[in-house]
Amino acid sequence: MPRPLHAIIHIAALRHNLSQARQAAPDAQVWAVVKANAYGHGIERVFEGLRGADGFALLDLAEAERVRALGWRGPILLLEGAFEARDLELCSRLHLWHTVHCDEQIDMLALHKTHEPHRVFLKMNSGMNRLGFAPQRFRSAWTRLNALPQVDEISLMTHFSDADGPKGIAAQMVRFEEATRDLPGERSVSNSAATLRHAQDPNVKADWIRPGIAVYGSSPDFPEHSAAHWGLLPAMSLNARIIAVQPLQPGDSVGYGSSFVADQAMRIGVVACGYADGYPRICPTGTPVLVDGERGRTVGRVSMDMLTVDLSPFPDAGVGSTVTLWGQSNQGGVLSIDEVAQAAGTVGYELMCALAQRVPVVVQD
């Protein structure tokens, strides 16, 4: 028999979460962001759940080819644009829209031979200080792009650094508005956090929104707000089974390093999941799990192929019982991936992207 561990991708949850993003910004078109292999979920697996989007936004040409191979004929946006001149050949062939964030990319376009001009998204660095033209240079970049016969429509784009926190987006929005005033073109400014927290702000004018993590059922501003607060459903569940039960007496330890020592008689369940499957090794004792749908906790150190859970509250649980590491249990209970990530000192994004290839994946509608 196969090892009793698998992940489930929930197509209905993807559709629901995409709908939540649309409701937050009803006047905007929606990019479904599927970079990093759809945040670890798998582009091919999530496609049916996200094909209701107006376009797909991703990172590289290989991902764009995969989306086109699925039959998608609508817009595809390369969020970081071309990395070298020959990338523009494939942009022409696949009819890709692409970001322009530096002079070198404009230089590439100026030398590119194409029969069909490109749709580009000119990116401003309004404060994130990663990619984009500084506000004082944005208009000159737009003017240069606009003069190129290789360029058709120019959209305007920026990215917020603090949409998920108290600093907010106001300062960056002011810089963007001042630098783009009177420039034509559609605008795209809002990621998941900005979409859910700030889409109703009258100062946020967005023709395209770019929900990423929210589409996959994780809260973009956890722990201030949970996924349930935003009406989001987990798009991925990770389930395993208990493969052994050990009785402990006071003073008995569990696992490597003896990091957990029982202070009373108890039972522990050994679960067929470890850090080689993508579950964080750093998760401490007390990290939440669901045992047959009921909330429990891990004990001891996570090892390569196994972790252990406290079965004291679950007298009926034993070998064969299901442990939900994150997502939705068969009994309907939900454990947000954000809670597990918080215990590991990271974010839900990382856990999704870290799901190991050896974990079987089932797609459910």
Describe the fold and architecture.
With 365 residues, the chain is of the alpha/beta class. Helix content is 26%, strand content 25%. The protein has an eight-stranded parallel β-barrel, surrounded by five helices. Strands 10-13-16-15-14-17 form a six-stranded antiparallel β-barrel. A two-stranded antiparallel ribbon has the order 11-12. α1 (11-24) packs across α3. The two termini are 25 Å apart. The mean pLDDT is 97.
Uncertain runs: none
Alpha plus pi helix count? 11
Total count of strands:
19
What percentage of residues falls in helices of 4 or more residues?
Answer: 25-40%
Shape: elongated
Query: How would you state the average pLDDT, rounded?
Result: 97
How far apart are the first and last residues' alpha carbons, in Å? 25 Å
Strand order of the largest sheet: 2-3-4-5-6-7-8-9
**Quick one: biggest sheet?**
8 strands, parallel, barrel
SSE arrangement, N to C: EHEHHEHEHEHEHEHEHEEEEEEEEEEHHE
> What is the SS-derived class?
alpha/beta
Beta fraction: 15-25%
Rg calculated over all Cα atoms? 23 Å
Topology (SSEs and partners):
Elements: E1 5-10, H1 11-24, E2 29-33, H2 35-39, H3 43-50, E3 55-58, H4 61-69, E4 76-78, H5 87-94, E5 97-100, H6 103-111, E6 118-123, H7 135-146, E7 151-157, H8 170-180, E8 187-190, H9 192-198, E9 208-209, E10 236-248, E11 253-254, E12 260-261, E13 266-271, E14 288-291, E15 294-299, E16 307-310, E17 322-328, E18 334-335, H10 337-343, H11 348-353, E19 361-364
Parallel strand pairs: 1-19, 2-3, 2-9, 3-4, 4-5, 5-6, 6-7, 7-8, 8-9
Antiparallel strand pairs: 1-10, 10-13, 10-17, 11-12, 13-16, 14-15, 14-17, 15-16, 17-18
Helix pairs in contact: 1-3, 4-5, 7-8
